[in-house]
Structure formats: C-alpha cells, structure tokens
Amino acid sequence: MTETTDPTKEPQSVKGPRIKKGLVVINTGDGKGKTTAALGVLLRAWGRNMRVEMFQFLKHTGGMFGEKRAAVKLGIPIKAMGDGFTWRSKDMDRTQELAREQWENCKKAILSDEHDVIILDEFTYPLHYGWIPVQDVVDTLKNKPHMLHVIITGRYAPEELVEFADLVTEMREIKHPYREQGIKAQPGLEF
Amino acid sequence: MTETTDPTKEPQSVKGPRIKKGLVVINTGDGKGKTTAALGVLLRAWGRNMRVEMFQFLKHTGGMFGEKRAAVKLGIPIKAMGDGFTWRSKDMDRTQELAREQWENCKKAILSDEHDVIILDEFTYPLHYGWIPVQDVVDTLKNKPHMLHVIITGRYAPEELVEFADLVTEMREIKHPYREQGIKAQPGLEF
C-alpha cells in the first residue's frame, strides 16, 4: 500500500527520510469544507486511536450540530464556547470575552502534551477582528509538543499565521446552491 | 441557534422557503481536503443517524487507511475497489476494469433509495481519463432520489459534471509542507 494520497501525481521520492513532525494546518477561504475537512481529520485520527480534541469558537455553547452529535457518540471532546455570534449579535463584549476564554482553554490543551490532534474551529475570526493577538497564538504554537497537529479553520487567516503554518489550503467557492438556487444549508451536509 | 454556518457573513434571509433537496457536491482542485471534507460530511451525517455509504475509487481494495479504520468502528459501509493505482501501476486494464465495476456498484446504490448520503471518493479520475462516460454519471444523478446527497471528490472534475452539480468547491494549495520542508504525508492527518 502506498502512502501517496493523490494517485494522479508522480509519487514523491520514497527514499528520502520521513520527517516526523506535528503540523500546523490552516483551512481558509470563502468556500465550503473548512470545518468539514477538520472533522474528516478528526475521524481519521480517531480511527487510528489518536487523542483528538476540538474547540469551536463563536458557535453557540449548547449547539447540537451534526459534528457535536457525532463527537458525543464517539466520546471525542468537542467544546463550543460562544453565543452563536453573527452580525446580529447584540452583546459583542460578551462574544469577545468568550472567544478569549476559549483561547485560554486551547492554550492549556496545546501545551499539555496530552493530545495528538487539536482542532481550533473558526479560530481565524477572533484573530482577524483583533480580539486575540496573533503573536500570542504564534508563540504558543512555537512551544507546542513536537508531534502535535493543530488544525485551524476559518476565513481571513492572518498573514503571520499563514507564514508560520506548515500546510495551508484555500477552499474556493466555484458554485454555490444557496445563492444560485435559493437552497439553504442542509442538515448532515453542513452542520 | 442559527443555521448560518459562517458567522462573518450577513445572514441570508430566513424568511424565504427552505428548499429541501439532496445536493450533488464536488470537492475538486489540487489542494488538500477533498476526501477529508467528504469524511467530515460522513461524520456529521452519521451523527444525525443518516444512512451513509462511501465508495472509494483507485485506492487499494484491502487498504486500512484511517478513514477505513474509523468506518469499520462506526459500522459505516466504506468500499474500496482498486489496486492502489499510481503512475507506477503496471496493469492499467485491470485498474480501469475495477473502476468500472465500482461505478456499477455506485449506480445501484444511488438508485436504490436506501441512503441519505453517498460519497464517491476520487471518482473524478476515472472520468477524467475516460474510463467511465461522464454522460452515464450525469444521467444516473438525474435519476437519483430527490433527497439523496452525492459527494464526489478528486482533481480534474469534468466540466459537464461541474455544470450539473449544485455545490462545487476548489481546494487550492497555498502552502504545502512536503515540497517545502520534505515532510511526507502523516498518518491520521491525511490517510
């Protein structure tokens, strides 16, 4: 069995040393699939008995999205801390405070050396809006355990974070049924 | 709880009718996250007790990737049928034959009306290389059960398929550790 995940690409040299390293991964862009791909990693890692944890920013603390339902069934810790922030949110101080509190939880988890994969879902937004200093995040990631993978999702990934990351993918919207056909987000598929 | 999945976007009108429809979704492009996002949907849908099934093309029939390990644990059917095709493959006739056989399995599943979500992983390659006629696929999708979501992953999605699909996302590689740092695919993260 080959480890080349893209069958149409010339396989990379398999003779070179395999560098083992936990990666900092960013899924950004205006398209779909940023959080969803992070969930796919969560599933794969869980399949390999790795220790995974997911922290969600902004999403409502008590929300029972599809991923939350799945995580509960799997016994994967998934912590949302937010008030369901949208542009309609009325108490922005509270929204920011919750994001900062959640970042403190993440920092502890990242530095604890008790995980193989940590997902910071929609973490780019509090960075983009300046609620959490990007430098604090980069400093924390610099001190992360060597083998820990950290996956960050959301639009507007700050440049300093992109520079520091190992793997950055932009999800680009090519065709979108909501605008084009008036179809709204579907349960299971998107939440 | 809002269903708007992107908190930074102006919420769409919640007054319009919710059109309920199973979507044809394509994750394409040269970046990471195409299969991984499909796995995320699989997890979400499983979390909502939806009936999901995944068909993998090209990947080795007996491969035990992270997703396969997870699916076995979850009781989700995930069928790989292939010989681990890469450019090194020696028996291309066999590779093509397996792809066509797998497509017949998919067709049956799509038309059976026994699923909520069906994933055709790396299905674009046999289409791109002309092993399976795109028109046959479009015709099958036209006849799919109304509420069934079908998710297709892989590079080089054929234009006719993109035109037919409801939701198309391109995963674009912004930064890639393998080329830049000589790091190879990591278990859990990518397979």
- What percentage of residues of chain A falls in helices of 4 or more residues? 25-40%
**Proportion of residues in β-strands of chain A:** 15-25%
Q: How do the SSEs of chain A run, as a string of H and E? A: EHEHEHEHHEHEH
Low-confidence stretches of chain A: 1-5, 9-15
Largest sheet: number of strands, sense, barrel closure of chain A: 6 strands, parallel
CA-atom Rg of chain A in angstroms: 17 Å
Q: Name the pair of protein chains with the most residues at their interface, and give those residue counts.
A: A-B, 96 and 96 residues
Gross geometry of chain A: globular
**Mean pLDDT score of chain A:** 87
Content-based structural category of chain A: alpha/beta
What does this entry look like structurally?
The structure is a homodimer of 191-residue chains. Chain A has 191 residues and is α/β, with parallel strands linked by helices. The first copy, chain A, has helices spanning 34-47, 66-74, 92-111, 124-128, 134-142, 159-164, 177-181, and strands at 24-28, 52-57, 78-81, 117-121, 149-153, 167-175. The first copy, chain A, has a 6-stranded parallel sheet, sandwiched between helices. In chain A, strand 2 (52-57), helix 2 and strand 3 (78-81) form a beta-alpha-beta unit.
